[in-house]
Design goal:
alpha+beta, Pnp Oxidase, Chain A, 2 domains, globular
Length: 201
């Protein structure tokens, strides 16, 4: 459906619920011109320099998990430092995942996920979930998050249980917005695991 079709559908809906609408047809604005970077154009910032400079920003570390979408599969999970709260009303969080991730399609199929905020002593656990293709849950102790049934990792300082609310593109990553349905903290040490300049601190 094009822009004109979507506008007409919106007008019909507003009329059906008794909302006031303009007597004149809705004007559809033209699409903005989009241009891809040509092969002979240099990227504005060197990738290695981008990584080096941005590495000065210390971040917390999480493991995003999801229940098995298919009974033949086990649960899914990956280490993620690109995580943040987004909105209080409604309660939303956001994480970023590479488009090349092999774990993301499994989380997308599940439609739900749990963000496990790692504690200072969980660097080894984080590394295990950063490896691609391995059985990441081997030897890992976990329970089930109450809403999603996604793995809630033992020892995590906090957990946030979500459904997928929206997914947006962001360069070579996807921006995943989650609607929070349940959350909590651990009763133990709440010292966070931090990542800075390519190492845990």
């Amino acid at each position: 459906m094009g822009h004109a079709g979507m506008a007409a559908t919106a007008v019909r809906y507003l009329r059906s619920v008794g909302a006031p609408t303009a007597a004149e047809p809705v004007e559809v604005l033209p699409r903005p011109d989009l241009r891809a970077v040509a092969e002979d154009e240099r990227a504005p910032v060197d990738a290695a320099e981008f990584r080096r400079v941005l590495g000065n920003f210390a971040s917390g570390v999480t493991v995003v998990t999801a229940p098995a979408a298919d009974p033949a599969d086990g649960p899914a999970g990956f280490a993620c430092q690109s995580f943040s709260s987004l909105s209080l009303d409604p309660p939303l969080v956001v994480f970023m995942v590479a488009r090349t991730s092999t774990t993301w399609p499994r989380i997308a199929r599940a439609g739900v996920f749990c963000v496990n905020v790692l504690g200072a002593g969980q660097g080894k656990l984080c590394r295990a979930f950063a490896v691609s293709g391995a059985d990441k849950f081997s030897g890992v102790s976990y329970g089930e998050a109450p809403y999603s049934s996604a793995p809630r990792l033992a020892g995590a300082t906090a957990w946030i249980d979500c459904s997928i609310h929206a997914v947006h593109t962001g360069g070579d990553h996807l921006i995943v917005v989650g609607r929070v349905h349940a959350l909590g903290t651990s009763d133990g040490d709440d010292t966070p695991l931090l990542f800075h300049k390519g190492r845990f601190i």
